Amino acid sequence: MSIKFYPLQFEPILKERIWGGEKLKTILNKPIASKITGESWELSTVEGDVSVVANGELKGKSLTAIINESPNEILGTEVYKRFGKQFPLLFKYLDAREDLSIQVHPNDELAKKRHNSFGKTEMWYIMQADVDARIIVGFKENSNASEYLENLKNKTLLTLLEDVKVKSGDVFFLETGTVHAIGAGLVVAEIQQTSDITYRIYDFDRVDTKGNTRELHVDLALEAINYNKVDTYKQYDRALNQSNPVVDCPYFTTNFLPLQGKITINKTGKTFTVYMCIDGIFEIEYDGTRFRYKKGDTILIPADMDTFILEGNASILEVFIS
């Protein structure tokens, strides 16, 4: 393919959810059309929800198509070697007007066996939090399947689970098996393995507009759950104009980059990079062209882009595969 690659943006894939709201529009300027939009999928190759390029020469082409045509140039040599032509991550923004269901995700082994899918290790960056907003992450103390099932049956499961108040800038890393829920009043940037496998455990007995409850996956979840107490909160530095490590796991590396002014970025061609602009505005200068971004934008930097400049005043999540 004889194209010189450039920073790629994609059309958001907007998802209505029973728990969704309007903050993806009011805070992140997404073109939502309903009052219950819960998710904006920014970068996805999940079947049926494949991202489409929104800018430049490749506009209108799917992420899957451009990877198939130029895997090394888009993914990077090491990522292509490890994952083939699969894009291994999924990037989202979420708006929780109400609590999400209590749920869990399977690990790679279980997801492969049951669904021929990746597992779903993920991280959350809290972009906006209402007063007293909280999340549920794991068990308060080490538990077991029988205690868990007894409390689920008696509708007292919440008494076993860790309930954490959160604020803007907090980061949580959720390994597979961690029982969790995003609470009401939060806007979250989510980075995860490419997977849409969720086992819903408890949904607060709520119903949709037609009076129907949502499907639960209690039996499937049993084998997937880690019943031990886990530490999910991630502390990180905020040194200006530097990539401050936040999460480094086998599936992705995420840095926090507070940009004030101008910095030069040099890449090796081994991996793509994704920038999520979580506050402010900035520009990328590459090959004599400037590209402008604002809060809520997600940008895929093809591995083929080796040297470029970031300039502006912004807080950025920088994501790649080590």
UniProtKB/TrEMBL annotation:
Signal peptide location: none
Q: Which GO terms describe its biological process?
A: carbohydrate metabolic process
The note describing how and how many cofactors are bound reads: Binds 1 zinc ion per subunit.
Keyword terms of this UniProt record: Isomerase, Metal-binding, Zinc
The cofactors it requires, by name, are: Zn(2+)
> PANTHER family recorded for this chain?
FRUCTOKINASE, TRANSCRIPTIONAL REPRESSOR MPRA
The protein here is known as: Phosphohexomutase
